[in-house]
Amino acid sequence: MIVEMAPQSTNDLSIMIGGDAGQGVESSGAGFALALARAGLHVFALQDYRSRIRGGHNFYQVRVGERPLYSHRDPVELLLALTPQSIPLHLHNMQEGAAVIFPQKWEDVDVSHLTKHGLKVDRLPLMEIAERHGSRLMLNTAVLAAASALTGFPLKYMEQVIRENFGRKSEELADTNAAVAQEAYDVTLDHFGDSFPHRIKPIEGAPKRMLMHGNEAIAFGALAGGCRFISAYPMTPATSIIEWLSAVPDDYGMVTKHAEDEIAAVCMALGASYTGARAMTATSGGGFSLMVEAMGLSGMTEVPLVIVEAQRGGPSTGLPTRTEQSDLLFMVHASQGEFPRIITAPGTIEQCFEAGWRAFNLADKYQCPVVVATDQALAANLRSLDMDTVDPEAVEIDRGATLTPDDVDTLSEEYRRFRFSDDGISPRAMPGRETAVLTVPSDEHDEHGHINEEPEVRIRMMQKRMQKLKTAEAEIKPPLLYGPEDADLTLVTWGSTTGNCLDAADEINAAGGSANVLQFIDIWPMPVDPVRHALDRCRRKVAVEQNYTGQLALLIRMTTGVAMDDVLTKYDGRPFSPREIIEGVGMEVASGNKA
Amino acid sequence: MVTRLDAKMFDSEAENTWCPGCGDFAILRSLKMALTDLDIAPHEALVVSGIGCGSKLPDYMHVNGYMTMHGRPLPVATGAKLANPDLQVIVVDGDGDAYGIGGNHFLHSCRRNPNITHIVEDNQIYGLTKGQYSPTSDLGFVTTTSPDGAIERSLLPVAVAIAAGATFIARTFAGDPRHMAAVIAEAIKHQGYSLVDVLQPCVTFNRVNTYDWYRQRVYKLEDDYDPTDLDAARARAYEWADRIPLGVIYRNDEVQTYEEQVLPLKAGSPLASTLKLQAEPAPGQYEPLKEQFL
Asked: A223 — contact with chain B (CB < 8 Å)?
């Protein structure tokens, strides 16, 4: 605990909670974030955990501000330690003048060592309070309340969250935890008053804000877009998509199927989609590897398919709970043969919501697989959002040339499922009507869907299918430019890294530099002309990506011939902090790879 | 039984590429007969197939069809059935599909009990790839990939299906189309997952398990055989080498289908919901869901 007069701040602070898996690090962190959002503040919350249920160090980082936040920030101003080990582990994350909250019981903590690092630390009887009320498990409650007192954040926000969390188990437990919180709050306030220079102040009358992560936004978007079927197999970090949709009340008619494996998951979605329902699956790279053959089946049989690929560190099991963007080129090329596909990569929670419903429009209109590519950081990190940023009213359901049963009944001529057309799109009937009995084969086929290997049929069918990609280009999103148009530096990026780049560019510009961000959203088909146009205007172009090889930079070069000036990569599974980006572009580029 | 249908309604204009004498012809004919007898029209059924000679069946039949990938028709069919329970969904694939590469889907379909019918054209060989041993090939069976004779024991699909919880398990023989049509019709009528293992001679690549080989061994289950008797079914499930039972070996009509238990389906099928939203989007319905994020 410090009392040194470091720089003062109000509502501009990062807090870290460290502890063992099973100690409630995640629920405490998410609870803190929710309390802050309810107090009218903007929040960004990042969870860092290992692939295990019990034991092993985890941490949660919550950043608070008065404007929308897009990334975490290092170093932090406050560490809440649930284990003694958390303190040395996070020493390097601490700002000079930062505070550490931990129970005085931990006599082994070397206070003088911490003081040497600019942290003036004091001891609080937090464990004693928890134990007196019945269990040391309530240490996390005590620590949250202590943080409330220290930062001047009224306890009522934290107490409400604590009551909600424990009230689900029992009223008694909620009361006990509330008592722990009150006592810990009082002790901390007695001890430190308002000496801590970083304050949290609720904003009265601020609009209500939601706290949401990318997976929830995609799932919500899909539901609002008319998706009523998802089949998936649990895989971190995609699992919360099917979980969220499974929790939707039954009267929405949302059918969810936890399949026996990812192959079954994608095949069930294809079967559902063949009948005319909007269907999807969601997975991470390992599961996507298993879905690859079915992606080709979607391409060949022109059955719409939406796959969410929430990337994590690879290869193989890799870094199961950590972030990476190393499947991009795989997604572009996955499955044998050539067929049209669309890959869209949202970078913010708002974009995730839009991608959730727009993917179905694209899949229906172009009758092909659509991959929504995200990454662990986007999938799982929480952000506060204004209510109207997730707007089901704005959702458009556009099924393209999909024939309903009523449409089929009024067909004026014999139905041909794979009818040749100039734009490559053949009206797609749903099975179930006498006038359009349809067979779709994974073999090459003629307009009627009969297996056919004649060269002229093959050539026309290939041209028909591939033409759809050309047709789709008209609505492919060009890259988005944020910040001053004539900046000296352009951070070229995609996925969750967009948020980190936005905060980095803001910091550079605030410090008198000149930077902007070029975010790629629709990645395949690559919108070649708009990309060339956008890149032509850039001075120094640095691709910022969470992978080893700079895959977006490679793809841009492959499709447009334009090379980046530098590539800044990171592949340790932890998201870039704005500071790392600023240092990375200012100094030698981390990997040394050039696109 | 008088029906509106004629089996000719199911005839396809596609060129059939099966070898003369192939057991698949009889399966195709029996399936058409069964659907005709049950008054199920081409547009009311969906036939989902895998990969192999027999999996070309949907092409040779005028019916809704999805010819999928090797081993994967069961999950495709399950998804289709869940999305539109009005479709009569039938899977047709081979022993390589069902018991080899798609074995996991077979196991889980048995215990899941979706209301689909699974016809396995079991010829104990990989025909389309020109003669390699399959999961149901007998020990010692010589093929290009088992030149010294197969050293893996063959899978007993009926026994596996019983153990995995299937609610309807039958075996029939492509040399007896009438029996086959009757068994397939029974299977389609069954509410739940129904397996029909069809002994289907491959006249080109399997010179051991010929029509004669099967005729010498098959027998029809006795009139007083009770397919609801699990112990009796288990005993018959292991009969293979000298005597091979034909007919409905096991059935359990007490188990609910998977779809019957899916609560959101009571609000309408995914297809019906999608169509409704397509006609008239109802964005207001989602506002309450935002509350959970506050």
From this structure: yes
3-state secondary structure of B152: coil
Angstroms from A452 CA to nearest CA on chain B: 9
Domain with residue B238: its CATH number is 3.40.50.970
Residues paired with B192 in a beta bridge: none
Domains of chain A with CATH codes: 9-199 (3.40.920.10), 212-391 (3.40.50.970), 402-474 (no CATH), 480-586 (3.40.50.920)
Omega of the bond leading into B281 within 30 degrees of 0 (cis)? no
Strands B117-122 and B194-199: parallel
- Bridge partners, B125 (sequence order): B133
Which positions in chain A touch B77 (Cβ < 8 Å)? 271
Burial zone of A358 (CB within 10 Å; 0-12 exposed, 13-18 middle, 19+ buried)? buried
Q: Are A149 and A188 in contact (CB under 8 A)?
A: yes
CB A585 within 8 A of CB A542: yes
Q: Which domain holds residue B210?
A: 7-259
Given a contact cutoff of 8 angstroms between Cβ atoms, the answer to whether A247 and A253 are in contact is: no
pLDDT band at B2 (very low <50, low <70, confident <90, very high): low
Residue B21 lies in a domain: yes
Percentage of chain A modeled with pLDDT above 70: 97
State the residue for tokens 């129904």: B194
In a domain, B70, yes or no: yes
Q: Which residues does A151 contact at the CB level (< 8 Å), separation at least 6? A: A13, A78, A196, A198, A199, A200
| Beta-strand runs (E) in A243-368 | 255-258, 279-283, 305-311, 342-344
Question: Minimum mean pLDDT among A103-117, A332-346, A430-444, B145-159: which range?
Answer: A103-117
Rg (CA), chain B: 20
Tell if the CB–CB gap between A439 and B68 is shorter than 8 Å: no
The H-assigned helical ranges of A138-203 are 139-151, 155-167, 171-192
* CB atoms near residue A422 (< 10 Å): 8
User: What backbone phi and psi angles, to 5 degrees, belong to A172?
Assistant: -60, -45
Asked, for residue B292, whether it belongs to a domain, the answer is no
Nearest to A275 among B42, B67, B87 (CB): B87
The first and second tokens of residue B30, run together, are 């029996």
Q: Chain A partners of B128 at a C-beta cutoff of 8 Å? A: none
The minimum CA-CA distance between A383 and chain B, rounded to whole Å, is 11
What is the number of structural domains in chain B?
Answer: 1
Give a yes or no: residue B288 inside a domain.
no
- Between CA B100 and CA A285 the distance in angstroms is 25
- Min distance A251 CA to chain B CA atoms (Å): 5
Residue with tokens 């959970």: B292
pLDDT beyond 90 at A586: no
pLDDT value of position A399? 97
- How high is the pLDDT of residue A95? 86
Scanning chain B, the segments in alpha helix (DSSP H) are 23-37, 73-83, 95, 103-112, 157-164, 177-189, 211-215, 230-237, 258-261, 270-279, 287-290
Set of chain B residues whose Cβ sits within 8 Å of the Cβ of A385: 293
